[in-house]
Design goal:
By secondary structure, the chain is an alpha/beta fold. Helix content is 34%, strand content 24%. The protein is globular, with a radius of gyration of 18 Å.
């Protein structure tokens, strides 16, 4: 039986040892028994560049995560990694070290005979106009080139400042504008011609049933790992959310 697992919004960081331990346990247990693992963004709390893996001032956890994926890939599990809003600078250096394959956002993949659109989910939150403007800036070649030209220590300082600012901004926003927009969701189903969607980002794990142009569709939202954490399993029987 084909079995694929989906995770997102782990936000791994040195200051979150419980989540880190759960992640490595997950790789050694649940993920090792799957045919494929899909990481749909925000694997890390932040990623300041692939020199995290080699620079003396880099985060040791980055190396441990890459090694964990490498062991999984070497054992025959296909590992796919998508950019999130926190770790969109993950690049070829990390992919080479980890044995993971880069997954575009969005991507349509066929799993257990059915096409599924996979997304991080932030592009569906179109009501958050300020965030979408920042996303366009941060994903631009000019911004990334200027940012990556800084020493890694300086990049860490910039990221910490951005994180603190983000906490203030998020706290001041109505919760509903940080969730997906219903029209954006339906547009995504139409554009990709699928009836199943899996994404993260919103930290609101659930299954949502909806109708798009007369077709029954389902949208699965992955859990974050700030609390219990969990994943979505998809096999020939169907999808199901699993909490730790």
């Amino acid at each position: 039986m084909s079995r694929a697992l989906f995770i997102s919004d782990l936000h791994l960081a040195a200051e979150r040892p419980d989540a880190n331990e759960q992640f490595f346990r997950f790789l050694g247990e649940e993920a090792s028994r799957a045919q494929a693992l899909y990481v749909l963004g925000d694997l890390f709390e932040y990623w300041a560049g692939d020199d995290e893996l080699k620079d003396p001032s880099g985060e040791p956890l980055a190396v441990e995560v890459a090694q964990g994926f490498r062991r999984l890939a070497d054992a025959g599990v296909a590992v796919h990694v998508m950019h999130g809003n926190r770790d969109f600078l993950v690049g070829e250096g990390f992919l080479s070290a980890s044995g993971a394959r880069f997954l575009e956002d969005p991507s349509v993949v066929r799993i257990s005979g059915q096409p599924v659109v996979l997304m991080h989910g932030d592009t569906l939150c179109t009501d958050d106009v300020d965030y979408q403007a920042w996303r366009r800036t941060a994903r631009s070649e000019a911004w990334q080139r200027e940012f990556l030209a800084k020493p890694l220590v300086a990049r860490h300082q910039v990221v910490r400042g951005l994180r603190e600012k983000s906490k203030e901004v998020v706290a001041a926003k109505p919760a509903e504008i940080m969730d997906v927009n219903a029209d954006a969701v339906r547009d995504a189903f139409r554009r990709h011609g699928v009836r199943r969607m899996i994404h993260g980002h919103t930290h609101r794990p659930a299954r949502h049933d909806l109708e798009v142009d007369g077709a029954r569709c389902e949208r699965w939202v992955l859990p974050d790992w700030y609390g219990r954490g969990g994943y979505l399993a998809l096999d020939d029987v169907g999808p199901r959310l699993v909490s730790f």
